[in-house]
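Re: weekly structure request thread

Next one in the queue (309 aa):
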Amino acid sequence: MDQKFYYHKLGTKNSLAEEWLEQGKSPIGKHAIAIFWGNITKNDIAKRKLTIRSKQQAYDFHEAGLKKNHNKTIVILIFNEKIWFVKPTGGMQQRTFKVERKNKRKITEIVKLIPVEIVKSIKISKIPPILAGITANAYVGRGTFREITNWGNIKAIYTVLGKKLPKEHLENPDSTKLLECLGSVELETLVAKIFEANGCFVPAYRGGNLKDVDLFVHNYQKNSININGLEIKRNEAKTIQIKGKKVIRKPENVDYFIGYGAEDMKNCFDSEWIIKSIAESKSDHLKEWFKLSLDWLPNNFSKNYSILK
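Done, posted below.
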């Protein structure tokens, strides 16, 4: 797939997004996106002479500005309940610019800019939750110009922009390709609802700051609860890790791993387990929640999954 997508932060926490995109008040007098990073110049980036950890982001930013990539690049920015989809219209330029840092002190930096065209702007309440919550992925959220590679997010971008999904997104449908259309928080919520639908008590849908633990699950019923091989005995509590990816094995400090699969499947339950647990559940609420969470998917994708019908 030639098309590339990036998540971008324009200034600290995207604080410059409204001014530069809505009002066109960038240093080049038009809509623009930018990276800062002190006294690094555009020539340093273009010649790939950087030694900083985030150098790949700078190189990607430069590549996005090349004329050959303008129509192949979409950049998204999120700020104040709004999302912008922009595409480059020119090459990387540089200007000196006074930047306000966390201590409120302004310093002069060399800002590297790319002029852009706004393809679409919309309230985040109108977009799929997986895209609205894209920064829940720490790798993306902590970056400045990160490539978006998750197929669920890419599906959401195509859908919001009214574009047809690439054929590779429609081929070989399976449970993992369906579940990747949920964001990480949605996936954790779904698994919590599966446990609740089977009689478990889940005090919170997120585990907090405990390492590896996403859910605490309790069985206060009179009998053991068995969900397609995952057993919680009477008066027993279990810890669960949930990941929207495949892993080698579950962490030692949790009882069960639930995700897309694991090489060592001991006490690990994969995407097939999640879909089967929904399909076999007697809870109409669980099934309806799952369908509504994915009702943004285009019909030519969702029609391949009986669980959504």
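The longest helix spans residues 184-197. The mean pLDDT is 94.
Next request, please.
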